[in-house]
Design goal:
251 residues; mainly alpha; 9 helices; 2 strands; 2% strand
Length: 251
Amino acid sequence: MDAIITDKLLGFTMVLTRISTFFLVAPVFSLPAVPVTIKVAATVMLSIFFSLINPPVAAAQQDSTVQAVLLLSCEATYGLALGAIASVLFTTVKLAGRIIEDQMGLTMAEILDPLSEEQGQPLASLLEMIFVIAFLAANGHHLLLRIIHRSYELFPPGKMPPIATLAGNMLDATTMMLAAGLQLAAPILAALLVLLVALAILARIVPEMDIFFISFPLRILLGLAMLVIFAPFINGFVGEMAKMMTKVLPL
């Protein structure tokens, strides 16, 4: 009887470990703005739910403490890998915002990011908040639950992909984030480049004009105007991010 109870507790702990480590770094859920009580309650309820629909069978006959620690370590590693890959892809919009800010000349501007509760750049934080709203409005949190569910279908408690596979997927996710961030920022970067070329031509035509003094407000004005046009397209990136996740997540 004691062995059965021990196996059940170990099985539930394995499920709890994977889910808690996943949401520890997963998009939206890991933000400091989310109360800790909500995080704990949601993690426990999801662990109970997935323990019922995916009964842990790998915990049976594990009477060694060392084996139990290894199983929990595997679950923690797999959960962290899933959450880290999803989080890396989620920061694509914020990366695009930082690239745009650098070209607009707003690198010194800082605000308190209400999501991360840290110092951040205004445009990057604004785009991130817009993307979070679009992500939740499109039921993006269901995508995170599907990731967990799919992981248990392919890798039940006690099993995980090879470490080399996890590392490769993390590298692929980082590459996709950088490429997608540049693609999102490309239209605004192109507009700013055209402005700089026009100002360079104007400087040759009118040498006595202070181009540096004029270029700074013009870059900000053009960048903000392009952002107004660009903002609605962030909603469409939610679907693109879901496709990228299906390609690189170790599922």
